[in-house]
């Protein structure tokens, strides 16, 4: 039996539908306005919501996001008297179970309810099983919860996964969760940093080599692909993989074999691919710098990780979780967050996402020695200064208004912000002049390649897109 909540402004249709559902053994409740939806969800906790699109006090599809935020959110079936292709597409993108016209046979609606209940039953079992395996991933926002559900589903298959999202959003953490929840969890999780493999050594690093393959090869060496046998190969920043290596790697995926440098025979390999990137691989395909056939091979399942600024409700819980870990590791007493500290954390946009948040918590903790709480004053200047700068910008008077007096930043804060801005401009100009050639950029700037890659990540600059 399903608990069904019907939100429809047509008393005749909704009454007919409720009676039909009751005859099928379901518990049906009817409401006629969006205003009663929140209370209905709280009191009934329905398994299925039958949602009309056009209601007297609003647009039904606008309520979908808030419905999904409810505890144990129901499967949503949209039922409308005026079917519209754009509305149907919007509804499906929002994750509804089905989109049905009121003119469809009653059996069509009943079948959708039955199928939604079957899915819901299996989903509860799968969620209960996967929750333990994703321990350590913090967040309760709808966007991150959807990512975790998708990751749990991915863990039950052996299909390649592509994780997308900005730098610092936790792509490797999700990749490890998928691996640890999969049938391959007892084998290795091997990370390939595609930004840090020199082109002249790429084959040896990936495929390994035999003794005597080249000068200095004094013994056999297993490559990363061999180490990943039976487990998972994680291709971090796969968009940075060189074109020649893309071709070689595609063959490995297709044939399930590889040849170490200097060897004459092929070796078999069996691994699951999880790739991650902060770039738009479709655009790279259009530019001709990434192979379309390789993209198809690594993108059987695609999961997008949202930036931290799009899930602000997770910021303080994430910070608290990391604070607890750091305090435990350093054997120091746990500190609390003051209200102003939490306000500053939430107000900041976090361009470096979760990684930057963790670094900020550690920096604040080091400044708070002797305090039982972390206060806003313990935050790094860049976090507080960015907030103040935003407040100043929004407080600027419009034309004709009397100019208002604004606070000026402390000299050290201003200098750090200015230096950071100049540093970013320099990196962008360097990449533009060298056309992304890291060897030439290193030579011109006097910076090591590792340092250059670090600056690119820190400032969110892509060497190919400037």
Give structural notes:
The protein is an alpha/beta fold. The chain has four domains: 3-125, Rossmann fold; 144-306, Rossmann fold (3-Layer(aba) Sandwich), CATH 3.40.50.300; 310-407, Helicase, Ruva Protein, domain 3 (Orthogonal Bundle), CATH 1.10.8; 413-459. 47% of the residues lie in helices and 13% in strands. It contains 19 helices and 16 strands. The protein has helices at 11-23, 37-44, 64-68, 85-93, 106-133, 142-155, 171-180, 202-207, 224-227, 243-255, 281-287, 292-298, 315-329, 339-347, 353-367, 381-394, 411-434, 438-445, 449-459, and strands spanning 3-7, 27-31, 48-51, 54-55, 58-59, 75-80, 98-101, 161-164, 189-193, 232-236, 257-258, 267-268, 272-277, 301-304, 336-337, 373-374. Strands 2-1-3-6-7 form a five-stranded parallel beta sheet, sandwiched between helices. Strand 4 and strand 5 (58-59) form a beta hairpin. Helix 6 crosses helix 7 (171-180) and helix 17 (411-434) crosses helix 18 (438-445). The N and C termini lie far apart (58 Å). The model is unreliable at 390-406 (pLDDT under 50).
């Amino acid at each position: 039996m399903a608990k069904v909540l019907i939100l429809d402004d047509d008393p005749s249709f909704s009454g007919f539908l409720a009676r039909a559902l009751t005859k099928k053994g379901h518990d049906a409740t009817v409401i006629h306005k969006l205003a009663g939806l929140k209370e209905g969800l709280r009191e009934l906790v329905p398994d299925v919501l039958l949602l009309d699109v056009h209601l007297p006090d609003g647009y039904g599809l606008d309520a979908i996001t808030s419905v999904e935020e409810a505890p144990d959110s129901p499967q949503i079936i949209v039922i409308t008297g005026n079917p519209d292709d754009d509305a149907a597409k919007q509804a499906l993108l929002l994750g509804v179970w089905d989109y049905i016209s009121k003119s469809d046979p009653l059996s069509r609606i009943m079948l959708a309810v039955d199928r939604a209940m079957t899915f819901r039953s299996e989903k509860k079992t799968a969620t209960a099983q996967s929750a333990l395996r994703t321990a350590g991933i913090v967040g309760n926002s709808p966007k991150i919860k959807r990512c975790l559900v998708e990751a749990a589903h991915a863990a039950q298959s052996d299909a390649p996964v592509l994780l997308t999202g900005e730098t610092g959003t936790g792509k490797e953490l999700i990749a490890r969760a998928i691996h640890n929840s999969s049938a391959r969890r007892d084998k290795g999780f091997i990370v390939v940093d595609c930004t840090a493999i020199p082109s002249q050594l790429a084959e040896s690093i990936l495929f390994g080599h035999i003794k005597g393959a080249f000068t200095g090869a004094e013994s056999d060496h297993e490559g990363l692909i061999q180490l990943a046998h039976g487990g998972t190969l994680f291709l971090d920043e796969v968009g940075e993989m060189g074109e020649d290596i893309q071709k070689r790697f595609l063959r490995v995926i297709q044939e399930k074999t590889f040849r170490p440098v200097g060897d004459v025979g092929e070796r078999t390999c069996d691994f699951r691919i999880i790739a991650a990137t902060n770039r738009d691989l479709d655009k790279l395909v259009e530019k001709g710098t990434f192979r379309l056939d390789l993209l198809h091979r690594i993108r059987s399942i695609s999961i997008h990780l949202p930036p931290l600024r799009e899930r602000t409700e997770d910021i303080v819980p994430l910070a608290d979780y990391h604070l607890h870990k750091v305090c435990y590791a350093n054997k120091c007493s746990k500190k609390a967050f003051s209200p102003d500290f939490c306000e500053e954390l939430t107000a900041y946009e976090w361009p470096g996402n979760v990684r930057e948040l963790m670094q900020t918590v550690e920096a604040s903790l080091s400044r708070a020695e002797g305090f039982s709480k972390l206060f806003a004053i313990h935050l790094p200047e860049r976090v507080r200064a960015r907030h103040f700068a935003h407040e100043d910008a929004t407080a600027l008077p419009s034309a004709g208004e009397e100019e208002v007096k604004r606070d000026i930043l402390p000299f050290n804060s201003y200098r750090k912000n200015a230096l950071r801005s100049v540093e970013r401009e320099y990196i962008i100009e360097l990449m533009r002049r060298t056309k992304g050639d890291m060897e030439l950029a290193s030579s011109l700037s006097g910076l090591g390649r590792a340092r250059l890659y670090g600056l690119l990540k820190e400032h969110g600059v892509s060497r190919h897109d400037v």
